[in-house]
Design goal:
This protein is α/β, with parallel strands linked by helices. Helix content is about 30%, strand content about 25%. The longest helix has 20 residues, at about 205-225. The protein is elongated and about 85 Å long. About 40% of the residues are buried. Pathway: Pyrimidine metabolism; UMP biosynthesis via salvage pathway; UMP from uridine: step 1/1.
């Protein structure tokens, strides 16, 4: 149950809804494949406690490395997001002299020195440590690395494949499992001929000349000797048994990395802390929240929004009004610098101006979208991104799953993210599971905790916000109100004839605002 997502150049990673019947693979090798989303990779303290699982696949040109990688993905079935990372993207930038040789089929692309191994290892290390990476794009038609890059993030499993994938010791240190694809040399040549003619526009004479001059010697001298580093030798064809063994091992390792703590976040004072003591119920003043002044106007808005009888038209109007008030109040946390201007009567005025290089908004779909109109009214012409974090309903544990990541450029590029200020928007913080994951995603990209301003309509004092504050004390939380109670319940999805199926544990904020996304959009 996987969809393949191959983002356009410098476009965000998009994670789609699984459709088994539509499973296809594009010629582009660097791909993101997803099924039911990625579960938490961090603990209750907010720190990363599990890396992505990395598989290295080496073998001769045309041995079937990419095919084996895709067989593994298909056989794994319903799994978190997977990245297939190709060594072909990391060919070095060529000079004019090297380009002339390449077009004459006289450049050795099969020597280890032709590949930028340090960059390959650096990008792979970033992805393994749950950070974003911007992968170079190489054109086999022009024999040149392009200026554009491809943004990748969010993989629970990374499959790195290439002829030299096991040759470099720096790469080998990053692998959790090392495979070598063994294939008959005649079959490898036949596959290479077919591929290079169909996909890379080469002529047969040039392919054969390059094969005999460079490819075969490189295989004998560098590729084949690297198989001694492999954990498993995989046949290039008829390899179903080997694929099953590999997938069983990967599933077991992923299961060992799994951890669940949403229940403890939802109502933390009912559970013991790691030291064994019961966590006391927090007071509002201990949560370090920025709460809008509780004016009569605000009380009137909340009265309308909380009422079940409020029409959808009125609900939308007052949600937009409240989000505008929240955003205006939140601007106090952005940095300002002195600025002197001349007034229409030629007088000078010493005022303030925003002093921030990059600012953007990121909404947690779908209820976070209810704050976007207010955000736009206050901060016009700034980029907007989104995250989709949903509860895991298939297993009934309610753990958050990362299903969609679409972030502005100033967050996707690490050197910009370190200077970016991000307004993170969600309608409420109840269990805080989605908020926790969203903040962790921004931190993975290099955004400073002190530069994250979380804007929300409501916070549940008895919910997971206390855990959130302990994990991320630098994040500012601006809210219009605080409710006291998180109410635990069970949602039964059983259909006729399935009465004995277990329900799903849910938590509701009381008195709350109900399902804000449904009330706003439906």
């Amino acid at each position: 149950m996987l969809d393949e997502v191959t983002p356009p150049t410098d476009e965000p990673t998009r994670i789609a809804t699984p459709k088994l019947e539509n499973l296809t693979f594009q010629p582009k090798k660097n791909t993101v494949l997803v099924s039911h989303g990625r579960p938490p990779w961090y603990g209750e303290d907010g720190h990363r406690i599990s890396d992505a699982f990395v598989v290295g696949i080496a073998g001769g040109s045309g041995s079937g490395k990419t095919h084996v990688a895709r067989q593994i993905v298909r056989a794994l079935g319903s799994i978190p997001s997977v990245v297939i990372l190709s060594q072909d993207s990391f060919y070095k930038h060529h000079t004019d002299e090297e380009l002339a040789l390449a077009h004459a089929s006289a450049f050795d692309f099969d020597h280890p020195d032709s590949i930028d191994m340090p960059m390959f290892a650096s990008c792979l290390a970033d992805l393994k440590s749950c950070q974003q990476s911007n992968i170079p794009i190489y054109s086999f038609t022009t024999h040149q690395r392009l200026e554009e890059t491809q943004y990748l993030y969010g993989a629970a499993i990374i499959i790195a494949e290439g002829i030299m994938a096991l040759q470099d010791p720096g790469l080998r240190e990053l692998y959790d499992l090392k495979l070598f694809v063994q294939c008959d040399s005649d079959l490898m040549l036949a596959r290479r001929l077919k591929r290079d003619v169909a996909e890379r526009g080469r002529d047969v004479d040039g392919i054969l000349e390059q094969y005999l001059r460079y490819v075969k010697p490189a295989y004998d001298n560098y590729v084949l000797p690297s198989q001694r580093h492999a954990d498993i030798i995989v046949p290039g064809s008829n390899n179903t048994v080997a694929i099953d063994l590999i997938c069983t091992h990967i599933r077991r390792k992923l299961l060992e990395q799994s951890h669940h703590f949403r229940q403890k976040m939802a109502i933390p004072h009912l559970y013991a802390s790691p030291s064994g003591t019961v966590i006391p119920e927090c007071k509002v003043e201990d949560l370090d929240l920025t709460i809008l002044p509780q004016t009569r106007q605000l009380q009137g808005i909340f009265t309308i929004l909380r009422s079940q009888a409020t029409s959808r038209q009125d609900f939308i109007f007052f949600v937009d009004r409240l989000s505008t008030l929240l955003m205006e109040y939140s601007l106090q946390y952005l940095p300002y610098a002195p600025r002197t201007v001349t007034t229409p009567v030629d007088a000078t005025f010493a005022g303030k101006a925003l002093s921030v290089k990059y600012v953007c908004g990121v909404s947690i779909l779908r209820s976070g979208g209810a704050l976007e109109r207010g955000f736009r009214r206050v901060l016009n012409d700034v980029p907007m991104g989104s995250l989709l974090v949903q509860s895991n309903t298939s297993d009934g544990d309610g753990e958050p799953l990362m299903l969609h990541v679409m972030l502005p450029v100033c967050v996707r590029k690490r050197h910009m993210a370190e200077e970016a200020w991000v307004f993170l928007l969600d309608a409420q913080i109840g269990t805080a599971a989605a908020a926790f994951m969203a903040i962790r995603i921004l931190l993975d990209h290099g955004v400073k905790a002190e530069h994250i301003i979380f804007v929300t309509f409501l916070v549940a004092r008895g919910g997971g916000v206390s855990v959130l504050r302990r994990a991320f004390p630098g994040v500012k939380i601006v809210t219009a109100g605080v409710d006291d109670i998180m109410q635990e319940g069970w949602l039964n999805h059983s259909r006729e004839g399935e009465e004995n199926l277990p329900g799903r544990q849910v938590w509701a904020m009381v008195p709350g605002l109900g399902q804000i996304g449904d009330r706003y959009y439906l």
